[in-house]
Amino acid sequence: MVSMASWDDKLDRLLGAKSGNALESALGLITVGDLLRHYPRRYAERGELTRIADLELGEHVSIMAEVRSCTTRNMASRPGTITEAIITDGRAQLSLTFFKQKYLQTKLLPGTRGMFSGKVSRYRDKLQLTHPDYKLVGDEEDGASLQEFASGLIPIYPATKELQTWTIANCVRQILDQWDGVADPVPEEMLAEAELSGLSEALRRVHQPNSWAEVTLARQRLKWDEALALQLVFAQRRHSAISRPAPVCQFKDGGVAAAFDEVLPFTLTDGQREVGELISADMSTDHPMNLLLQGEVGSGKTLVALRAMLQAVDAGRQAAMLAPTEVLAGQHARSLREMLGELARAGELGAPDVATRITLLTGAMGAKERKQALLDAASGAAGIVIGTHALIQDRVSFADLGLVVVDEQHRFGVEQRDALRTRAAGGGSPHILVMTATPIPRTVAMTVYGDLKVAALRELPKGRSPISTSVVPIAERPAWLDRVWQRIREEVAKGHQAYVVCPRIGEVEGEEDEAPPKKKAKSAKGSKDSKEPKEPKGESDRRPPLAVMDVAPGLARGPLRGLRVGVLHGKLPTDEKDTVMRAFGDGELDVLVATTVVEVGVNVPNATVMVIMDADRFGVSQLHQLRGRVGRGSAAGLCLLVSEIPANTSTRQRLEAVAATTDGFELARLDLELRREGDILGSAQSGTRSALKMLSLLQDEDVIEAARVAADEVVAADPELLSHPGLAGMVSDLIHEEHAEFLEKT
């Protein structure tokens, strides 16, 4: 009698050491539950071919396609042959390249259909798979044929180079043959109310569906599990936050906040006024304010934050502002002092009766400056303390911290964002204002920031100039790069300035965005393909990303010769960074070649052009943030996205989408659609698998809202889930320990 497989059984015991070890090393799947929760990414229908135009450069894919042709030729530069097969989906083509495998001409015959798996690369501006694995329809070698994958639909699993989708499907089939189901963690009354199927039935249907209707029913149940697990975590956090005290910071007539409003040289936007009133009301209570303020680049979030900090100061408290970089922290300190004027001169001769002091604290400060900054924070002499991660070190103390402002929250690690929460006097929690210029779709805010209020600033202040964006496809139009540099010269001739952004620093110790490359990136004019494709050696075939330290001297000697070119990146000494930024801000530099250190907070109204090199290496929201550095004055802004990515690829379509709109909220939705939603839950930081494998934060708003209601009801009656062990187990099953820690601290 064959023993049945249980949820926690190890895969190597049931499938054998070879298969079990392969699943663990390639995908981290150890138990039966792990494998059954590894859902198909999509399904291929009999006769249906995969859209080649949707493939992403650098992505590992498994596609169904038809062979159009297959030819073999001798390599010109070395002994051996190259076999090239052209496959098609009926609309677009993809090249398959095999080295020293001439026999494939007899297998990859025109008209043959199959599944091909490999990493999408580029050769001579065309997409290809080099040495892909494949399984042809009807091929009985090496195990089950494609027809045995499923009775009606072929599941396509998230796979790796070492473990193909058909191998995963075969392992799932073996496990399901031995599996007798699992106890359902969700109460029967909840399933009935939501009209959901049982868990065991859903798992069988999602892996071995007979129809699209079965796929739909299975996905509904599995999405519910993920949504409910997340919302239970947030419901517990909201419940525990109710009893946590916060310092009361009521608005004070005749205080520094009121004095600041009187001298403002402009009128607040309606959005700034409304959000300000919301913040003021929340800070006036003894419950911690937890507010996420999102707004377009240049929408005036810093002004809103300053008014909130002044309200804390008027209440006899302090405010701390946490910035992700020294450049931004210094910029905030300077700009807030300028905005406040004499109101920032507390303790100085001739200062107004109502005033405060702003102190800057960064890790690179000299010993004397740092000692004074620490003393100002600890004594309460500084009403507003601005700093980088140096603020959250144990030796930094505050006299009475009432408000923490976190600027560009996505740039901080989990522990960094959490460290200031416990700094309020009396062991309470200060009010928290989290700001981001990366707009967040409503369902994301409701899910990932489930215990925070969300406010948005959509209206731009008067005087902001329009920004036009264009893609510069230098692989197809190499001459256009010359025109890019001409445009910079034209703007400089008008008295304006320009940024050139690169994804990497270059020849310095350490890297800001990527590890040092194994070879130097080519010039800003781009690289040329060799005459023959290269046999893969396990590394990416893309050239290294362009670097500031390579591009800047090339521009200064070449197309921008005669212009004043400066360099800025995160590894420069603090005083040098400040000097460069001041020089650029004062108009002493024409062009600033920089990394993404200029992404947030840098305000130079005279800068009108931004050129982003290797733009395809940046995310949608990051591109939107970067271009927000231009068009900040009276002159219109121009952003040029330079890329070698071929046309008709999803990466190129992403760049075109950024060029087509300046609506950050629309781009935020696009950004979420294009990247793994699970990264939002910290899987990228923790290195663990995503908690969101089935749930779409954009498409499943109704599921998320219903799960939130159900979670609130459960937690209100049973905060620790002691009477719901199944739900508690589901939370720990779906939300790994690292994810729970991330959610708890975010």
* Arithmetic mean of pLDDT: 83
Low-confidence stretches at least 5 residues in length (pLDDT < 50)? 141-145, 147-151, 508-530, 682-688
Helix content: 25-40%
Read across the widest sheet, the strand sequence of neighbours is 11-12-10-13-14-9-15
| Fraction of residues in β-strands | 15-25%
Annotation field: number of helices:
24
Radius of gyration: 29 Å
The count of β-strands is 21
User: How far is the first residue's CA from the last residue's CA?
Assistant: 50 Å
- Choose one word for the global shape: globular
Structural class of the secondary structure composition?
A: alpha/beta
Biggest pleated-sheet summary: 7 strands, parallel
What attributes characterize this protein structure?
alpha/beta; six-stranded parallel β-sheet; 746 residues; seven-stranded parallel β-sheet
Report on the structure:
The protein has 746 residues and is an alpha/beta fold. The chain has 24 helices and 21 strands. It has a seven-stranded parallel beta sheet, with helices on both faces. Helix 6 (199-207) crosses helix 7 (212-241). It is globular. Mean pLDDT is 83; it is low at 141-145, 147-151, 508-530 and 682-688. Residues 509-547 are annotated as: Disordered.
